[in-house]
Amino acid sequence: MLKGERCETAKCAMERQWRNKPPGMHSWRRMRRGKTGAYGVRLREKQKVKRYYGVLDRQFMIYFRMAERARGNTGEALMTILERRLDNVVYKLGFAQSHRSARQLVSHGHIYVSGRRLNRPGYLVRKGDQISVKPSDRSLKHVRQALGEGEAAIQSWLQLDPKRLEATVVAFPTREDVMIPVEEQLITELCSR
Asked: Distance between CA atoms of 35 and 136, rounded to whole angstroms?
């Protein structure tokens, strides 16, 4: 009863036949291309990881070369190296609401590692590093606000003292600590060509 007369025809906006096609004027071209090839699938996995961690291609390839030299599975080593980045650790601790804000927090010098101020988001934390917040009102206010808003579950390789806003890296992260659904084997196959 609430539908108009147009919904009785093929031009109904709610029940169009081409609903499952991609948007745009030339959507039929995209449909005709078919499935993504093997290269496209591997590239998509690599780009997913790069975007999640906010890393450009050159830096990503540096991390991949480091992972190749490491013992064990290259894909797992790559994911643990990316997980050890300082901006990611700040995000995992709940000091920031997003990866971008964590990167900005580090870049602006609000984070100290083992008593030294660091402004490099790509710094790889080591076992035993003490991560703390700059003892200024502005820095403490930003971090306390982020900790209050987010209910982040601290991972097993990090220990957080929320009263002093200090954390310790207890161990290196494992593959289980990486939360994004990614197949690192496809990334290894793409980058090792």
From this structure: 54
CB 92 within 8 A of CB 155: yes
User: Confidence class of residue 120 from pLDDT cuts 50, 70 and 90?
Assistant: very high
Tokens at 65, concatenated: 């070369």
Residue 140 CA from chain centroid, whole number: 24
For residues 96-100, average pLDDT = 89
* Whether pLDDT at 106 is above 90: yes
Q: How many residues does the chain have?
A: 193
Is it the case that residue 135 has pLDDT exceeding 80?
yes
Which of 85, 112, 109, 115 has its CA nearest to residue 99? Answer: 85
Q: Provide mean pLDDT across the span 8-18.
A: 62
Q: Residue 132: name the closest of 74, 78, 171, 90 by CA.
A: 90
Are 78 and 92 within 8 A, CB to CB?
Answer: no
Cα separation of 54 and 58, whole Å? 12
Where do the structural domains in the chain lie, given as residue ranges?
Answer: 39-177
Closest C-alpha to 64, from 53, 51, 54, 79: 79
Which fold does the domain 39-177 belong to in CATH? Answer: 3.10.290
